[in-house]
Amino acid sequence: MRERFLKTGPPCGAALLRALILLMGLLCALPLAAQEVAEDTPAPALSAAELGAMKARISELRRQARALRQPATHTRALTLDEALGQIPRPHSPGNIYRWVRDTIAFEPYPGALRGAQGTLIAGSANAVDQALLTSALLRRAGHTTRFATGRLHDTDIREVLTRLASTARVERNGEAADARAAGIDATLVARLRDHIWVEVEHRGEFIAVDPIAAPLVGMTPARTQATHEQLPDDWATTLEVELAGHLKDTQRISHLTVSGPLSRYAYRTLTLGFEADPTRRRGRIPVLFVGDQSSRGQAIPVDALESLELNFRLKSGAREQRWTQTLYRSAANFDIFAFDAQHFSITLMPGWSSDGWLARRSEAAAEAALSALQSYADALASDDADDDTLAADTVMHELSAMMPAAFIRRLDRSIVQSAHRLGVRPVLSQPRAVVTASLQRGDQVFVDLQLSGDRVDALPLGEVPAVASAAFGGLYGHLLDTLTAEFLEQHGGRQMLTVARIFGRATHQRVAFTTIDARSIEKLDALRVNEVLRSSLRDRVRRQGRVILSPVQPVEVDGVARFGWWSVDPLSGGMRAHPTDALLAQVEHGESKTLSTARHLDLHAELVARSLRAAASTISPPSLDGPSICVATRELLALSRAFCATESAIASPELEVCLQDPQGGQVPISASADMLGLAGGSCVERLATTRCGAVYTRAVAQGELVVRHGEPDAAANAGITPPAPPCP
User: Fold this and answer.
1) Chain centroid to CA 390: how far?
2) For the purposes of burial, counting CB atoms within 10 Å of the CB of 244, is it exposed (0-12), middle (13-18) or buried (19 or more)?
3) Torsion angle defined by CA atoms of residues 294, 393, 268 and 321, in that order, rounded to the nearest 10 degrees
4) Helix (H) or strand (E) holding 149
5) Do 44 and 82 fall within a single domain?
6) Do residues 437 and 460 share a domain?
7) Is residue 337 a part of any domain in this protein?
């Protein structure tokens, strides 16, 4: 009976099969009953006392789920109807224009990423997503609209960006710092010249509704070039997700592909599960669920499988972005298909999260799960429980979305806090994919997650110097590495592997490090890694222009050889961690355990409880994440000096120099080029911005520099945010 529940689909079709797979994707590393029993053995019935205890626990968990929706977490409208409820009546074009202008912040990323509802959730958007929201609100209110496209003058763009930059300044030891303000980026100005807005029919003619560039409804400074009934294709964004397998004989198989407008997947969770292939021993058929829609893919030959990966392709007009997330890589002592069940999920986040969004998402998922759990308990306690009842009533809908939602909310809060501390405005330039994995073995569920596809840029505020952008880029990579492990350890109960930990063990074991860039690509041949990884590293260096720092060989961590590296984008100064292990590669081999039905129910209830605690701890009133920021700052400074080093660490530039020049006095990358046409400048020159960013971050973290937000002459300094406590 248990075998049928785990490995076959329920008779009610795709919807119940989807929920079945989602149950296995709840992200929490704690025991879960799963021992298979013979199909002809009836499920043990619950006693009246056991049923009563379970109902009492479910009632308490429901109370905890409802408690997530505190009034403070629901001030932001998350749906069109809620937004219209906040807009004064009548819902005229003027009132809708003013609400969008005053409620949705401008965020200058490229392409249509968030759509109308995603813009409400994020609370910020670029011109195209604000146009989509404005049009949707106007149409919901009964108005006729169309889109208009045209060009903005540079003067108008600079006015918009000046409003976005707000007011901030840097003080050093209590006095105004001698720093050169970043000013407005000319590249960003050029990107914003193409503009889109909404026109609404009013008294027989169409008038402009432009909440970004116009001071009043009916006006826009843009020069109209065309009007469109629907969003033009050049402004639309599509997403393609492919599941691909690499076989041991080097064959590549495209098992499954889904594609469509990005808005179809935005702020949703796609789930990937596997069915047994009736035509092949040890074969698996992948099944991908998007809402109630399911797609079955080409069978996976497990015994011949080398690796599984997700390939993402994002296309917006002429721009295209691709990235890959490895799900599984075979090893001598690791085979995900030897576990009782496997589950992956992909949560697409094209914008920022909010407490209200997390609370609503978590409450709905918990309520669905608890209703199914109670029905399951009732069926087991009855005299007529059978396989169909077991399969149908133990399904817990949507729980796989709770943990990644809590993680991304915690990450967003840390991003905002660190950006505020450094004096920059973060810009989420590309959608994020939170890929999660869970493996079930007997009475245990092992879980992992990784963030991919993301790019977070930073715009210096007010009089803040340009080096602050590089400082944020470096700090963000370290925060992501640290917070991912902290989150999984807090809610999963086992120590996670970070690249920082790999580097620490390498230093302890006296393993040498090497820097690889376009001028030293031959160093890849000396790394003790497999050819697949070597090829991936070569692509990052040659095609993406990254500079890589890695150990020269895998490092022993907890008795297992591990490898990871850091990469830097020389143009932005951004730094990222790259663990080479696929998701859940740290899971050790073990045996299953048999648990009673009552214990089985208890452990499912504990899964819900752990997920609710993750959401509640994330929604709780925020405090500055000082320890994580301090740890990340120290690691950033050390690594910035390790890149390009040969015999000893590279000296950090002086803070005074970096406040004036983010290159630290080095020749700018664009001003130098070698005879071979490779990336301009030496390794030391190319990473000068990264080192300056690390010096600025250290000065802010230790309190030498303080970013003041607000006007200096405001009454009682009411608009100035007090600085965070300095790092030790």
Assistant:
1) 35
2) middle
3) -50
4) strand 145-151
5) no
6) yes
7) yes
And the tokens for 452? 């991919």
For residue 3, give the nearest of 463, 498, 634, 594 by alpha carbon: 594
- The DSSP-derived string for 504-535 is HHHHHTT--EEEE-GGGGGGGGGS-S-HHHHH
> How many domains does one find in the chain?
2
Give yes or no: residues 444 and 385 share one domain.
Answer: yes
593: three-class secondary structure by DSSP: coil
pLDDT at 395 over 70: no
Average pLDDT over all residues of the chain? 83
3-state secondary structure of 395: coil
The answer to whether residue 393 scores a pLDDT higher than 60 is: no
Site of tokens 């001598």: 332
The verdict on 20 and 132 lying in the same domain is: no
pTM: 0.87
So what's the pLDDT on residue 182? 86
Residue the block writes with tokens 């509704």? 209
Phi-psi bin for 564: left (phi > 0), alpha (psi -120 to 50), beta?
beta
Retrieve residue 130's tokens.
């604000």
Higher pLDDT pick, 655 / 379: 655
Per the CB < 8 A criterion, the answer to whether 705 and 177 are in contact is: yes
- 392, 340, 394, 343: which is closest to 594 by C-alpha? 340
- DSSP classification of residue 8: S
Specify whether the backbone of 585 is left (phi greater than 0), alpha (psi in -120 to 50) or beta: alpha
| Same domain as 384, residue 249 | yes
How far separated are the first and last CA of the chain, in Å rounded?
58
Domain span at residue 97 reads 77-106+113-152+193-235
CB burial of residue 456 (10 Å; 0-12, 13-18, 19+): buried
| Residue written as token pair 């590393």 | 29
Contacts of 53 (CB under 8 A, 6+ apart): none
Residue with tokens 């890849």: 524
Give the number of other CB atoms < 10 A from CB of residue 505.
17
Query: Residue 231 sits in a domain of what CATH number?
Result: 3.10.620.30
Q: Which of 6, 26, 9 is nearest to 17 (CA)?
A: 9
∠ at Cα 542 (537, 543), nearest 5°?
100
Place of tokens 């994919």: 433
C-alpha of 54 from chain center: 35
Q: How far apart are CA 339 and CA 333, in angstroms?
A: 12
d(Cα 584, Cα 432) in Å, to the nearest integer? 20
Beta pairing, strands 124-125 & 105-106:
parallel
Q: Which residues contact 586 (CB under 8 A, 6 or more apart)?
A: 448, 496, 497, 560
If asked whether residues 426 and 314 sit together in one domain, one would say yes
Q: How many whole angstroms separate alpha carbon 59 and alpha carbon 371?
A: 10
Q: What token pair was written down for 489?
A: 């350890």
Inter-residue contact 727 to 626 (CB < 8 Å): yes
Residue 712 lies in a domain: no
DSSP 56-94: HHHHHHHHHHHHT--GGGG-S--SHHHHHHHSPSS--HH
Task: Return the structure tokens found at 263.
Answer: 């808005």
Averaged over 572-590, what is the pLDDT?
77
Rg (CA), the chain: 27
- 241 — phi, psi (to 5°)? -120, 125
The answer to whether residue 102 scores a pLDDT higher than 50 is yes
The CA distances from residue 361 to 267, 270, 313, 411, 615, in Å, are 10, 15, 27, 17, 10
What is d(CA 506, CA 29) in angstroms, rounded to the nearest whole number? 27
Which DSSP letter does residue 581 get?
S
Residue 7: what pLDDT?
36
Q: 482 and 336, same structural domain?
A: yes
